[in-house]
Amino acid sequence: MAGSYKDVVKRARSAYNGGRTLSVEHRRRQLQQLRQMCLDHKDTFLDALKIDLRKPQLEAMMLEVNAVIMDITYTLNRLDKWVKTEMVSSAIPFDRSYIYNDPYGVVLVMGAWNYPLQLALLPVTGALAAGNAVILKPSEVSPATASALAKLIPLYLDKECVQVVCGGVEETTQLLQERFDYIFYTGSATVGKIIREAANKFLTPTTLELGGKSPCYIDNSVDLNLAVRRVLWGKMQNLGQTCIAPDYLLCSKALQDPIIKKVKEVLREWYGHDPKDSPHLARIVAERHVERLASYLECGKVVVGGRFDLSDRWVEPTLLVDVPENSKVMTEEIFGPILPIINVETHVDAIKFINKREKPLALYVFSKKEAVKELFLRQVRCGGVTINDTLFHAASSTMPFGGVGNSGMGAYHGKYSFDTFTHKKSCLNRSYNPLIEKVTRARFPPYTEKNMKALISQKDPGDGPGVLHHLKVFTKYLFSMSIGALLLFLYIRYTYVKV
Ligand code: NAD
């Protein structure tokens, strides 16, 4: 097996070294083909997601297939602009400074099972747009989607520049022995550390998209009906198996009962008398995860739900109260439809509670009070925030998505994906201008006190408009004045001739 991974990487590297991934036209074609694959095989992917997770079609369409199509379209529409070499100002007049957007080379993308299409193809989109060759390793825990990707990608994309490798821990361990130029990993922090260790061997840069416990605070200033719907929507997508799902609720004791009442009402309205029969809820990915989730039910008092069924990979939407801070459900990432409620007296206590723990991937604040929102934003370090809703910040192509600390490093989506897979290469093109050389020759030996003083006396001009800007403004004025003078001249001449 190890031999074949060597060949996979070798093939990708020789394709990359051949230079075709650098061509913007080649990148564009690959992205168009990737999008076409999603359009042509939308149903194949929807079926696979149903087999793997029993994902409801609307969720699968919105957060997997369509999310990928939209991201590719967003990228294609801006690719020409993103790839451009950027000219920046230079410290020394007559020099020219550029930033080139270089691809890294051969990149490894490792997906997770919970959004097996989106988490595989969004990074692949960024990697291709940036001009890399890609080896994709989808999660073995969602085998139907993994095999659909392995079957379809070679039919649509350049077979050497984009290759799919399937397998579990053993295969991944062997694959990681190979040298990559970038590794993009989505999954747990535990495996994230293994990935970093493997990457260290070759000093390979990595992005780690990890998880953790994303808190959700609600205060009494909000419309509870809407707030509860928005929290439950974020929590019940994919039956709670979303890295940025609200993990636990923080609210005052007084708000707890109204929230429980509202949760019961909304669950009944959305999923009927028995949510297990509802077609609008996915399933837990594997029996061992049902067992793990079932063990959390012991951590507090069940006030809503609480049933599970191993053979159907089912856990009921559940609310827990009276949960000790150090219980398992409050120390591990839940990743399922169980929502513990923790009582805090004020928003300041909520912030203290959150900041005692690892930095979360997402934070949700439900409040109409500007000062409350502002305090959370200023005092909590986390991957991203949605205020008065859940999940939405991650759906934006204009904002970076990623964690911080234990919830990850690096970010992607939209232009941030392109930048993640791009090395920004600085290039300073010096001039031979004799006047400038006179000023800068103080750097050459023999070193003297006078030269040192001259060199260290240089002042930072600040970020304000530079000489070039003033020159441009001056030229514009000169141009307008000349036009004005010309018009005046013509007018006088015309009047004079008439007289
Ligand atoms: P995981 O870490 O168990 O597995 C992810 C990948 O790592 C799989 O492809 C698997 O083959 C490989 N792997 C597992 N064990 C390995 C080992 N010992 N050596 C080498 N490779 C190994 O993660 P998961 O269970 O697939 O995903 C759940 C976690 O991912 C949760 O913590 C969740 O929050 C997080 N997640 C994060 C994001 C994000 O965008 N930040 C998205 C989805 C999931």
Description of the molecule:
This protein is of the alpha/beta class. It has 2 domains: 2-210 and 414-425, Aldehyde Dehydrogenase, Chain A, domain 1, CATH 3.40.605.10; 214-396, Aldehyde Dehydrogenase, Chain A, domain 2 (3-Layer(aba) Sandwich), CATH 3.40.309. 47% of the residues lie in helices and 16% in strands. The chain contains 18 helices and 18 strands. Strands 10-13-14-9-8-15-16 form a 7-stranded mixed β-sheet, with helices on both faces. The chain has a 6-stranded mixed β-sheet with strand order 5-4-3-6-7-17, sandwiched between helices. It has a 3-stranded antiparallel β-sheet with strand order 1-2-18. The longest helix has 32 residues, at 467-498. The N and C termini lie far apart (98 Å). The model has no long low-confidence stretch (mean pLDDT 95). Bound molecules: nicotinamide-adenine-dinucleotide.
Descriptive terms for the model:
499 residues, alpha/beta, Aldehyde Dehydrogenase, Chain A, domain 1, Aldehyde Dehydrogenase, Chain A, domain 2, seven-stranded mixed sheet, six-stranded mixed sheet, 18 helices, 18 strands, globular, binds nicotinamide-adenine-dinucleotide
CATH class of the largest domain: Alpha Beta
Report the portion of residues in β strands: 15-25%
CATH topology of the largest domain: Aldehyde Dehydrogenase, Chain A, domain 1
Which spans of ≥5 residues are poorly predicted at pLDDT below 50? none
Please list the strands of the largest sheet in the order they lie side by side.
Answer: 10-13-14-9-8-15-16
Oligomer: single chain
CATH superfamily caption of the largest domain: Aldehyde Dehydrogenase, Chain A, domain 1
Overall pLDDT level = 95
Counting helices, strands and paired strands, the structural category is: alpha/beta
Distance between the termini: 98 Å
- Radius of gyration, in angstroms, nearest whole number: 29 Å
